Q: What sequence folds into this?
C-alpha cells in the first residue's frame, strides 16, 4: 500500500513540475497546488497506512493508527489553502495590471 | 519550564490581531505596535539574562511533556538573534511611520508587520520541526502581502517570482519532514538529535539533511539566491530593510540549528557541501555587488555575500568559527537594516536608484553620508566597528579547521564589499551637488532618527564587544554541545 502511494506521489509531483515549468500563471498555480497535495499524501504515508485500528486505544493495544501525520497534514492543508488563495488573487491582480499572464513577458526590466 | 519563552511570539501576534479591528485609527495602530515591539526587546533582554544564569530554557506547551507536546526552547543563540531582531524591527517600524504612506497604513501594514515579527521570533524559539514550518509559513505569508503592498507594477512582477519560489521551497520542507518522520518517528528537535545519534547518520539520513539544506538555502539565499535581488529591491524601504535584515537570517538560523543539533555526524559530507555553496555564494555575490551600478542591486548583492560569510563559520565547526559567525550574524542583522534604510532614503530624495544620476549628497545631508560611511566600514570589518570581531573569529576558525580556500575567498569577498560600498559612497555622496533642497523629491524628516538609533546600536556592538563576549561564547558552546539542548528539553 505504501509503495503504491509513493508511486502516486511521484506521478503527482511530476505533473506538478510540468505545470510549474509552463508559462501561464494559472497553470503554475495549479502545478504548485498539485505538488502541495502530493506532499500531503507523502506525509500521510510517512506514518504507515492501514494499520487496522483507531488511534489512542490505550497503552496495551496491539495496533493503532499514528495520529501525528494526520494532525500535520491538517495544518499543511490549511496553510496550503491560504497560500493558494493569496496567490490566485495576486495572479488576477497581475493579470489586470499587465494585461498578460505570460511569465515570459513578466521577466523584468529591459537592459538588465 | 519558563513561561517567558512564549511572550516574544504572543505579544506581536495578539497585538496584530487586535490592530486588525482598529484599521481606521492610524495613531492607535502606531502606538500599540511600537509598544508591543519595545516590550519584545525588554522580554528578550530578560530571557538573555535568564539563559546566562540558568542555562537553556524550555517550555512544554499545554503541559504535555516532551516529546509528546510542542516544545519551545530558548538557548543563547536564539536569544541573541531575538534581541537583534527586535531592535531592528522597532527601528524599521519608526522608519515606516514617516515613509510608508497613509494609504498603506490603513491597508493593514502594522498587523502584517507584527505577524511577520511573530513568525520570525517563533522560528528562533521553537523546538519542534513542524512548528518551525508553521512559523516559517506565518512570516512568509505576511511577507507575501507586505512585498506587494502598494501594488506597483514592479512589485507585482517580482513578488510573483518570490512567492512561487518560496511555495516550492516550503513543499520541499514538508517532503523533508515526511521522510524524517517516517525514519525516526519524531519531530521534536531534541529527540531527533537523540534518535539519529543512536542509529547513526547513514546515507539516507544524510540525503534528507541535504533536502533540508536546499530548503533553508533557498530561504537564506545561500547559492539559491536568484529570487533575492529582484524581490528585495521592489517593496517600500521600511519593508525591504526588515526583509534584508531578518528573512534571510531565519534561513541561516535554521541551517545552524539543523546542522549543529541534528545532522552533525557527517561533517565531511554535509559541512563540506555547505562550504562549497558558501564559497560560490560569496564569489557570485561579490561579482554582483561590484558589477552593478544600481544602488538597490549593490545592496542586495551585499546581503548575499554576508550569507556566504556567516556560513563559513558553521563549516569550520570550531569554537572560534561559530563565535565569529554569531558575532557576524548579529552585526549583519543591524547593518543590513541600516544600509537598506539609507539606500531607501537616497532613492526617496533623488527619485532614482541609478548611481550615475546621484551625486554630491553629502553637502546637504552630512549625517546620512557619515552614517553610511560608518556602516560601510563596519561591513568591511574595520576595527573597532562591529563587523571586525566576526570577521577575525570566523577567519581564524576556518583556518584552524583547514579550510584555507574558504578563508581566502571570505577575505577576497570582504575586499569586494569594500569596493562596492566605497563605489556607492563616492558616487552618491561625493562629487558635484546636482540637486538643491527645492529640487529634491522628498525630505529626510523623521527618517534619520531610526537610522541613527541603529547606527548607535551597531557602533555600541563594536566598541562594547567586551560586554557581549560572554553571551556569544556561551551561544557557541551550546551549539557545539547538543547534549545541553537535549537536557534542557527533557530535564
A:
Amino acid at each position: 500500500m505504501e509503495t503504491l502511494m509513493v508511486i502516486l506521489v511521484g506521478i503527482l509531483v511530476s505533473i506538478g513540475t510540468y505545470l510549474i515549468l509552463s508559462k501561464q500563471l494559472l497553470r503554475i498555480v495549479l502545478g504548485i497546488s498539485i505538488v502541495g497535495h502530493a506532499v500531503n499524501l507523502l506525509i500521510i504515508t510517512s506514518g504507515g497506512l492501514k494499520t487496522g485500528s483507531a488511534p489512542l486505544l490505550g497503552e496495551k493495544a496491539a495496533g493503532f493508527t499514528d495520529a501525528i501525520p494526520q494532525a500535520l497534514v491538517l495544518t499543511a492543508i490549511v496553510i496550503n489553502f491560504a497560500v493558494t488563495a493569496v496567490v490566485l488573487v495576486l495572479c488576477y491582480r497581475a493579470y489586470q495590471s499587465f494585461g498578460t499572464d505570460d511569465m515570459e513577458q513578466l521577466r523584468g526590466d529591459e537592459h538588465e | 519550564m519558563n513561561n517567558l519563552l512564549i511572550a516574544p511570539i504572543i505579544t506581536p501576534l495578539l497585538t496584530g490581531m487586535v490592530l486588525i479591528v482598529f484599521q481606521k485609527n492610524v495613531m492607535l495602530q502606531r502606538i500599540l505596535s511600537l509598544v508591543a515591539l519595545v516590550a519584545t526587546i525588554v522580554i528578550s533582554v530578560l530571557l538573555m539574562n535568564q539563559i546566562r544564569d540558568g542555562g537553556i530554557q524550555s517550555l512544554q506547551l499545554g503541559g504535555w511533556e516532551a516529546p509528546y507536546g510542542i516544545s519551545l526552547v530558548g538557548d543563547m543563540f536564539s536569544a541573541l538573534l531575538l534581541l537583534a531582531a527586535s531592535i531592528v524591527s522597532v527601528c524599521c517600524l519608526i522608519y515606516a511611520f514617516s515613509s510608508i504612506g497613509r494609504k498603506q497604513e490603513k491597508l493593514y501594514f502594522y498587523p502584517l508587520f507584527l505577524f511577520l515579527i511573530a513568525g520570525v521570533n517563533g522560528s528562533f524559539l521553537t523546538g519542534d520541526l513542524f512548528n518551525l514550518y508553521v512559523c516559517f509559513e506565518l512570516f512568509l505569508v505576511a511577507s507575501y502581502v507586505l512585498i506587494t503592498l502598494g501594488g506597483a507594477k514592479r512589485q507585482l512582477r517580482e513578488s510573483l517570482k518570490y512567492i512561487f519560489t518560496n511555495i516550492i521551497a516550503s513543499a520541499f520542507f514538508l517532503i523533508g519532514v515526511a521522510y524524517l518522520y517516517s525514519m525516526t518517528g519524531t519531530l521534536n528537535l531534541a529527540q531527533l538529535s537523540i534518535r539519529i545519534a543512536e542509529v547513526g547518520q547513514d546515507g539516507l539520513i544524510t540525503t534528507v539533511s541535504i533536502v533540508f539544506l536546499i530548503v533553508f538555502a533557498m530561504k537564506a539565499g545561500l547559492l539559491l539566491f536568484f529570487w533575492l535581488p529582484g524581490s528585495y529591491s521592489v517593496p517600500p524601504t521600511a519593508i525591504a530593510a526588515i526583509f534584508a535584515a531578518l528573512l534571510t537570517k531565519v534561513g541561516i538560523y535554521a541551517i545552524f540549528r539543523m546542522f549543529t543539533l541534528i545532522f552533525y555526524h557527517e561533517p565531511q559530507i554535509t559541512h563540506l557541501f555547505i562550504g562549497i555553496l558558501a564559497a560560490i555564494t560569496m564569489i557570485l555575490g561579490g561579482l554582483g555587488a561590484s558589477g552593478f551600478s544600481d544602488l538597490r542591486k549593490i545592496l542586495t548583492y551585499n546581503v548575499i555575500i554576508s550569507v556566504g560569510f556567516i556560513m563559513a563559520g558553521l563549516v569550520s565547526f570550531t569554537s572560534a568559527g561559530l563565535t565569529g559567525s554569531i558575532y557576524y550574524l548579529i552585526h549583519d542583522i543591524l547593518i543590513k537594516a541600516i544600509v537598506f534604510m539609507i539606500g531607501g532614503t537616497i532613492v526617496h530624495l533623488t527619485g532614482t536608484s541609478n548611481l550615475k544620476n546621484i551625486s554630491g549628497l553629502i553637502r546637504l545631508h552630512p549625517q546620512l553620508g557619515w552614517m553610511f560611511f560608518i556602516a560601510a566600514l563596519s561591513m568591511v570589518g574595520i576595527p573597532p566597528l562591529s563587523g571586525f570581531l566576526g570577521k577575525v573569529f570566523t577567519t581564524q576558525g576556518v583556518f584552524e579547521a583547514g579550510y584555507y580556500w574558504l578563508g581566502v575567498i571570505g577575505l577576497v569577498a570582504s575586499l569586494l564589499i569594500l569596493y562596492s560600498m566605497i563605489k556607492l559612497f563616492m558616487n552618491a555622496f561625493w562629487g558635484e551637488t546636482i540637486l538643491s533642497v527645492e529640487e529634491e523629491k522628498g525630505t529626510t524628516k523623521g527618517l534619520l532618527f531610526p537610522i541613527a538609533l541603529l547606527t548607535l546600536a551597531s557602533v555600541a556592538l563594536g566598541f562594547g564587544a567586551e560586554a557581549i563576549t560572554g553571551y556569544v561564547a556561551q551561544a557557541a558552546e551550546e551549539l557545539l554541545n547538543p547534549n545541553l539542548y537535549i537536557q534542557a528539553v527533557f530535564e
Notes: Chain B touches chain A through 30 residues (CB under 8 Å). Chain B is about 75% helix and 0% strand.
